[in-house]
Amino acid sequence: MKRLISILTPFLVIGFIMYILIDFRRVEVLSAEEKQAIDRYRQELVKGTLLNKNQNDGVFLKQDFDQIATSLELLHEHSHYHVFGPEWGERLANPAREFNKIQAILNKPMYKGDTAHQAFLQSLQADLTESRKHIGKRLGHDILDDLATLVFTNEITEERQWSNAKTIQVMKDLGVKLIKEDAKSGVTPPGQQPAKAPAGTQSNQP
Prior knowledge:
- The chain has 206 residues and is mainly α.
- The chain has helices at residues 2-24, 32-47, 62-84, 95-106, 109-112, 118-133, 138-151, 166-173; strands at residues 28-29, 160-161.
- The chain contains 8 helices and 2 strands.
- A two-stranded antiparallel sheet has the order 1-2.
């Protein structure tokens, strides 16, 4: 038995390595143009200007963006754990809870009724549904990896795109300003009247 195991072990190791290499062939290396297109919305956060003149605001409130980013990173780590092993990630006791946190944000009336960003929100919803359906598997991992490192992140450093995520395609095609300006920038949240500055004071707008 030991002799049989010693004979089969090299073949099993080679087979496992080949499986990983074949699986990794699906990875798409982002071109400079694609990375620039995805990165444009980050630049908008710094410059304070809009990419698309038909858009009058960003998509998410800052606290909602941060919560989605946190949940996606936890789900990303959970997927790493299952796909690549414990040394590469950390298992969540209840991954459904993080998906539910994101869904609760997307179900807010301000996002459900946001017609200006429907392409982005619908693509994000589709990607989340697909990744949830395949949580713990390679397909789910690749979508979560892209969402966590190319969309909901403070800085895009990843050079590779792992999936055919619909959200990424929208970012390439349109560019989207993801975070709404806060009250200090003079942008009024939906449904609210702009606050009047006290007499004798100046506006803090840039």
